[in-house]
Amino acid sequence: MARHRTEDFIALWAPRPRRNRAGPLWPQVICRWDQENDNPLVVKSVPLLIFIDGFGLFRNTYRSLVGYYVTPASFSAQDRRRRMNTFPLFLSPHGFVWEEVVDTLWSLIPLDKGIEVDIGGQKTLLCVFMLCYIGDMPQQNANSGTLRPRASKYCPRCIVGKKINVDGLDNPLAILQFDKDSQSRYHHQAAAMRKQAGTLNATRKRAYCSQWGMTLDEPALARLTPASDLVAVPTS
Question: What superkingdom does the record give (predicted)?
């Protein structure tokens, strides 16, 4: 694939996959509804913004809970900030296992694929899908399967290491000249690395994941929303 501005070439796995019905990710995991039905249905899409955040209930005692909030993405920025337009889906208990909490949301997968409903007497394919996950940096690391900020490579969007940060103290240009195109994380590349890590034994897998700043297990949200790009995660 060529970039017209510089007329050089980048690998096919490098471009960010688009999150839509025509993009590369959707057909890989969800069958096209218009190919399965002779009579195309009217489609209603409801994109959602999912905000995940951990917080404490008490000022003097650390009891961390995680909230899972849903906001319609079609609202304007002003309407999205209104409390009445934010819908809490659940609050996880203290001491929870995040993977088990996500597994309880499997009932939402048919909505992402699209369900046939009757709206005003007309058969309609209703697609209520996750547009993107938002949250602070520690939570986005967990969402994308990246290690915490104390790791050697801690950024969910690139493979910048602590050495570059240390060099930046003496030479700020070391950070400004960081090649984000070749050193970024990409969805298809991360999926291939996950597949390679799965072929290693426990010791080598732990070393491999530590080297590249990846968690040992695939992120739980990838099972819930397989058509999403969890690498290109925005940070609120």
Answer: Eukaryota
